[in-house]
Automatic annotation (TrEMBL), chain A:
GO cellular component term of the entry, any: plasma membrane
Protein name in UniProt: Amino acid/amide ABC transporter ATP-binding protein 1, HAAT family
Keyword Cell wall biogenesis/degradation: no
Organism: Tistlia consotensis USBA 355
Keyword terms, alphabetized: ATP-binding, Nucleotide-binding, Transport
Stretches of the chain forming a coiled coil according to its record: none
InterPro entries referenced in this protein's UniProt entry, alphabetically: AAA+_ATPase, ABC_AA/LPS_Transport, ABC_transporter-like_ATP-bd, ABC_transporter-like_CS, BCA_ABC_TP_C, P-loop_NTPase
Annotated signal sequence range: none
From TrEMBL, chain B:
GO cellular component: plasma membrane
Keyword Membrane: yes
Superkingdom as given in the UniProt entry: Bacteria
Keyword Membrane: yes
Membrane topology type: Multi-pass membrane protein
CDD domains with a match to the protein in the record: TM_PBP1_LivM_like
Name of the protein this chain belongs to: Amino acid/amide ABC transporter membrane protein 2, HAAT family
Transmembrane segments: 6-24, 31-53, 59-77, 133-154, 184-207, 219-244
Automatic annotation (TrEMBL), chain C:
Membrane topology field: Multi-pass membrane protein
Official protein name in the record: Branched-chain amino acid transport system permease protein
Main location: membrane
Top-rank taxon: Bacteria
Record's keyword annotation contains Cell membrane: yes
Key words, A-Z: Amino-acid transport, Cell inner membrane, Cell membrane, Membrane, Transmembrane, Transmembrane helix, Transport
Pfam families to which the protein is assigned, alphabetical: BPD_transp_2
Entry annotated with the keyword Protein biosynthesis: no
Length: 255, 296, 290
């Protein structure tokens, strides 16, 4: 197997007496396009939250770029290069689209108050550089026209793109996308897929948790299937989808 | 009449320093501070007591700001640990406790008898002229300064981040940034304004007593901020002018309204504040002018 | 400072603690179901205490005072639910919290405008305290304990034994689940505000029986009641009651050491220390904090 970027080992999670995740392990290769599917209630959201550090698991470990990040909070995982988006986009509604992206730039000197008041020249220069980076991603994501609109005025699909842009500003090694196609019109699904492919070609790894099986299987080169808290299958999309157990779990055997 | 208007304007300016501070805390960052009056009291008593100990006002006023900022520090750290509702209530209790200490520690604060004979701004700073006019000029200068500081802060990358925190804290974490550092900084810096406001107040009124620092004052400031629109620096000033003009004006109004005693007038003030808090929340949470944030 | 002093302080602490518990239970019920800390609870208690002054017109004794107080508390509580809190239900908890503080001010303003700031006392016969072991017990103390315990028993019976009470607890445990399972929220809310008002009114009258009736009594009772609510984990009825008794005991037992004024601060101190150790209160089901 190629060098793994994200390696999840033996993750378990219980809520009350209900077991949501039982010993889930998988590895997403560096720079690759990995996808995860599973029926509702399979534990995808919980797994996503544990991998990104928004929830603590009851057991198991998460390794990122060879480093054990299980005990690290979200903020530090992101600083190591693990960015994420949200299933329901969580844009900063009162900021403009451009400001949303600029806010995401890491390590800004202008986020320290003493620099704000005593080093205005430095901050102006820094802001120009951040604005230029944001401009590039805005163009890449086709958000230039709405760059100065408040983020709360965007459509659902544009919000997904905005979140992707914000994640890109972090300069991540890997981006975890939580249902990027949910509630997005088919045209935009194609566009988002295309952007993901281009980014992958630039060396950014992706792990995409998704409900839209058709769009996902066309996009990724490795597919994981989660069912009732267990990893049911993994492999190339074509193989996995041919698997009888997967068809049983995911499509109720009807397909 | 003019001198009366001027007197009201001074208090309105002093209060609008607090409105600007609360606006940074709640309007821009989403931090709930129900203890504004506590920091105001700390500023007022700090400056008054230091000046009575012989320090010049040029020093006691900055000390008032610093003392309030210092008192805000542990509270700000606490806000990171507690749920927002818990923190709101803890802040109410914090301010009440400060008032309790003031009324109890007579050796220091004069207790409930109060602290009379505080140097006025014009005398303390040695500026000749009408004391009210001097106070007005000074308060105005402080407000202008606070507005400039607020605007610089809000329109900086720091300001962008606090608004992001207000909009969605988890999304900020997902960008690899800890909201905590920003919240603490905003809380402490804006409490500097509140402390300065307290210092000005002490040397303008020249008499301090614990009953000037009841929880009601905190909510004067809240109503002023919401009226002007949370998340708008200019709105904070307009809100203060409307509301505090009325509040202060009503102190003199009972002269004009025969049959309504001063005590009844204080009930009317309390009632108007209460009613406007309910009506604003119900019908115009975004304020009269419509800020970016609102309370909805 | 002998044993009998502390025994008497503890007894007094228990009584004030019960009064605090009643208000804390009112606050915690509102929080559990309407999801905001109701700062108007204290002033509803004040209205109850003032309404208690009408008791002697209806009939003699503590019972009528209490009944008038509870009726007034319930009426006010349900009225403000319809006028204020129901329209605010879809907005943030902060909106409702600010509105509830506004309501507290407005109610107190109306009271002081029409009735003035004077303290009043219920026209109850003055009876000498009876010695019970080391304790000096007023007959009204017994009445307060009995009334409070009966009320707490009634509320917990309602919560655990009646269909509407079970629905209340279901909503409190999981609003989403309750909504999906089709619980008629409006009836639950009306019942909840009714009980919250009865409890606040009772708390006010009992405080009036124990001490005096004044326009500020409810606001002053609010802080210890909030402290008790948070101490017992906000939304947890049993926790609120235990928290109330704990706060009452801490306040009274600390009096010889910190003086009369600071005993109000003791409640706050207890709250602060608890929150520093357990940010979710003493009775949190799961103390998961990020």
């Amino acid at each position: 197997m190629a060098e793994a970027s994200l390696c999840v080992q033996g993750i378990r999670k219980h809520f009350g007496g209900v077991s949501v995740l039982e010993d889930v392990s998988f590895a997403a290769p560096a720079g690759g396009l990995s996808g995860m599917i599973g029926p509702n209630g399979a534990g995808k959201s919980t797994l996503f939250a544990i991998v990104t550090g928004f929830q603590a698991g009851d057991g198991g470990s998460v390794l990122f770029k060879g480093q054990d990040v299980t005990a690290l909070p979200t903020v530090q995982r992101v600083r190591l290069g693990m960015a994420r988006t949200f299933q329901v986009p969580r844009e900063f509604g009162s900021l403009t689209v451009r400001e949303n992206l600029m806010a995401a730039a890491p390590g800004q000197a202008g986020e320290k108050l003493r620099n704000v008041f005593f080093r205005p020249g430095w901050i102006r220069a820094e802001e120009a550089a951040i604005a230029a980076a944001a401009e590039e991603w805005l163009a890449f994501l086709n958000l230039e026209r709405v760059a100065d609109a408040p983020a709360s005025s965007l459509s659902g699909g544009q919000r997904k793109l905005l979140e992707l842009g914000r994640a890109l500003m972090v300069r991540p090694a890997m981006i975890l996308l939580d249902e990027p196609f949910a509630g997005v019109n088919p045209v935009l699904v194609g566009e988002i897929s295309e952007r993901i492919r281009e980014l992958s070609a630039k060396g950014i790894g992706f792990l995409i948790v998704e409900h839209n099986l058709a769009a996902l299987s066309r996009l990724v080169d490795r597919l994981f299937v989660l069912d009732r808290g267990r990893l049911l299958a993994e492999g190339a999309p074509a193989e996995v989808l041919a698997d009888a157990a997967v068809r049983e779990a995911y499509m109720g055997g009807s397909a | 009449m003019l001198s009366y208007l001027l007197a009201v304007a001074v208090v309105a300016l002093i209060y609008s320093l607090m409105t600007l501070a609360l606006n940074l805390q709640f309007g821009f960052t989403g931090l709930i501070n129900f203890g504004v009056v506590g920091f105001f009291a700390i500023g007022a008593y700090t400056s008054a007591l230091l000046s009575q100990a012989g320090l010049p006002l040029e020093l006691t006023l900055p000390c008032a700001a610093l003392a309030a900022g210092l008192a805000a520090w542990p509270v700000a750290l606490l806000s990171l640990r507690l749920r927002i509702e818990y923190f709101a209530i803890v802040m109410l209790g914090y301010a009440e406790t400060i008032r309790l200490v003031i009324s109890q520690e007579e050796w220091l604060t004069g207790g409930v008898r109060g602290l009379p004979g505080i140097a006025s701004l014009s005398v303390g700073l040695g500026i000749p002229g009408d004391p009210t006019l001097v106070a007005f000029a000074l308060a105005l200068a402080c407000v202008v300064g606070a507005v400039l500081v607020s605007r610089r802060l809000v329109h900086s990358p720091f300001g962008r981040m606090i608004q992001a925190i207000r909009d969605d804290e988890d999304a900020v974490r997902a960008l690899g940034k800890s909201p905590g550092r920003f919240k603490v900084a905003v809380f402490v810096v804006s409490c500097l304004f509140v402390g300065l406001s307290g210092g000005l107040y002490a040397h303008y009124i020249t008499y301090l007593a614990p009953d000037q620092f009841g929880a009601l004052l905190t909510f004067y400031i809240w109503v002023a901020m919401i009226l002007g629109g949370a998340g708008s620096v200019g709105g904070a000033l307009v809100g203060s002018a409307i509301l505090l003009g009325f509040i202060e004006g009503s102190r003199f109004l009972h002269d004009l309204l025969p049959g309504v005693s001063a005590v009844e007038m204080s009930s009317v003030r309390l009632g108007v504040i209460g009613l406007s808090m309910m009506l604003l929340m119900r019908f115009r949470p975004q304020g009269l002018l419509g800020g970016k944030a609102g309370c909805g | 400072m002998g044993f009998s002093l502390f025994a008497n302080l503890a007894f007094n602490g228990l009584i004030t603690g019960l009064v605090v518990s009643l208000l804390a239970l009112s606050i915690t019920l509102v929080f559990g179901i309407a999801r905001f800390p109701n700062a108007a609870a204290g002033d509803v208690a004040t209205v109850g205490a003032f309404a208690g002054l009408l008791g002697p017109l209806a009939g003699g004794g503590t019972l009528w005072i209490i009944l008038c107080g509870m009726a007034a508390g319930a009426l006010l509580s349900v009225a403000f639910y319809f006028l204020l809190f129901r329209p605010l239900a879809g907005k943030s908890a902060v909106s409702s919290l600010i509105a509830s503080i506004g309501m507290a001010f407005f109610v107190r303003a109306a009271l002081t405008f029409f009735l003035g700031h004077d303290q009043r006392v219920y026209p109850l016969p003055i009876v000498r305290a009876m010695p019970v072991g080391p304790l000096r017990v007023q007959p009204t103390d017994i009445e307060i304990v009995v009334a409070a315990v009966l009320a707490l028993a009634a509320v917990f019976s309602i919560l655990h034994l009646t269909p509407i009470g079970k629905r209340m607890r279901a909503v409190a445990d999981n609003a989403e689940l309750a909504r999906v399972s089709g619980i008629r929220a409006n009836r639950v809310l009306v019942a909840m505000w009714l009980i919250a008002g009865l409890l606040a009114g009772l708390s006010g009258t009992l405080l009036g029986v124990k001490t005096v009736v004044s326009p500020e009594m409810g606001w002053d009772l609010l802080m210890p009641a909030f402290a008790a609510t948070i101490l017992g984990t906000i939304g947890n009825p049993v926790g609120a009651v235990l928290g109330g008794v704990l706060i009452g005991l801490a306040q009274e037992l600390s009096t010889p050491f910190v003086g009369f004024t600071y005993k109000l601060g003791v409640g706050f101190l207890v709250l602060l220390v608890t929150l520093l150790i357990r940010p979710q209160g003493l009775f949190a089901k799961n103390s998961l904090v990020r």
